[in-house]
């Protein structure tokens, strides 16, 4: 069981987990970092724990910073059998992370064994864990930031689960936030890969964030990771985890038997729809929770749109009629448009209001139904968009950072199509939508290419 402290809050900064500091002091880690590990130059120590030490490194071949997680085994205290077992456990992380390529999961670059040293090389994250945002005192993180973080983690877990990887240790110190505000899940050291019926046995996880089925050492599914993410969300919103106690057993008894406290009882300003999402995540019965990270992402996305709009949602029926007259929707039936509307938000913007902000990351695509807007890079206007024009295609497909801002020049009504919600639309409607979407994207790229050619 990976619980070095009861509160599970010993964490990492700048791309590494620091667990079990006191236990780590007893292990056979050198006081001074080595000069090199494999081909990687070592630039200093980031953190250490009971099973390893993490260094900041540099890859001279591709010229990038990396994080190097090293497992060292002390022959004075660990038998060769235990050493081999430790290596096997350590490389579970390498195997799990190596299976996953996702913008919200820390990337694995390399893994190797050199003599007594086993190490994995990961993406270096210059940022902090979620721990500072879980503070009990002082200003709380804005709700939209909290929802955005958990939404992206839900998408990452949905992807991980689709690959057969259960994380089993979701907690604030295992979620990094980059300097750009992008969350990334890390530390798959106790992950379960392609679990077989009967499970692996034993209790795994960090006590404050473990699901009831983990505490009971039962077979787990994706709902266990989602419970843990719900406990993280509860902590972010209230400044404390759902259950606490004098010792681990007291916490375990509460997790198994007591209903989770309601968020609104701890913090009255949290909207009820978000409180309901947390309550569903922390339900004792896995069958009553969200069944996939995608289901959770859909609910959070709908709440997020409500939160950001703050009452600016317009009449769907009225705007739906205007959408039917747009070129984009030629050939779409009324039923198709209704389906797309169910995966969208119809937003109103005042002159000067940003519709898209340069540098933000969001899985959304926009179609202007009324009004006009400007594409801006810094303070420079690059293009004008009119009724029927589309924008945001690349972000919709890849969740890449927005390379420019789009600002309403007049009063604008825009359809914001959400990528997560589109996954719930019927396959026939999706096929029709993506055909037109692709044609619009090709047209925009062709026009941009022609403009660049004219300038050269």
Write the layout of secondary structure elements.
Elements: H1 21-26, E1 36-37, E2 40-48, E3 53-59, E4 64-72, H2 80-98, E5 108-114, E6 117-123, E7 127-129, H3 143-162, E8 165-166, E9 175-178, E10 183-185, E11 192-193, H4 212-215, H5 222-238, H6 248-257, H7 263-266, H8 272-281, H9 293-309, H10 316-324, H11 334-342, E12 344-349, E13 354-356, E14 364-370, E15 373-377, E16 380-385, E17 390-391, H12 393-398, E18 405-408, E19 412-418, H13 419-422, H14 427-455
Antiparallel strand pairs: 1-2, 2-3, 3-4, 4-6, 5-6, 7-9, 8-11, 9-10, 12-19, 13-18, 14-17, 14-19, 15-16, 15-18
Main sheet characteristics: 6 strands, antiparallel
Strand order of the largest sheet: 1-2-3-4-6-5
Beta-strand residue percentage: 15-25%
Helix run count: 14
Structural classification: alpha+beta
Estimate percent helicity: 25-40%
Please mark out the parts with pLDDT under 50 across 5 or more consecutive residues, or reply none: 1-28, 74-83, 311-315
Quick structural overview:
The protein is of the alpha+beta class.
Commentary on this structure:
It is built from 14 helices and 19 strands. The protein has helices spanning 21-26, 80-98, 143-162, 212-215, 222-238, 248-257, 263-266, 272-281, 293-309, 316-324, 334-342, 393-398, 419-422, 427-455, and strands spanning 36-37, 40-48, 53-59, 64-72, 108-114, 117-123, 127-129, 165-166, 175-178, 183-185, 192-193, 344-349, 354-356, 364-370, 373-377, 380-385, 390-391, 405-408, 412-418. The strands form 5 sheets. A 6-stranded antiparallel sheet has the order 1-2-3-4-6-5. The chain has a 4-stranded antiparallel sheet with strand order 12-19-14-17. A 4-stranded antiparallel sheet has the order 13-18-15-16, with no helix packed on it. Helix 3 (143-162) packs antiparallel against helix 5 (222-238), helix 5 (222-238) packs across helix 8 (272-281) and helix 10 (316-324) crosses helix 11 (334-342). The radius of gyration is 24 Å and the shape is globular.
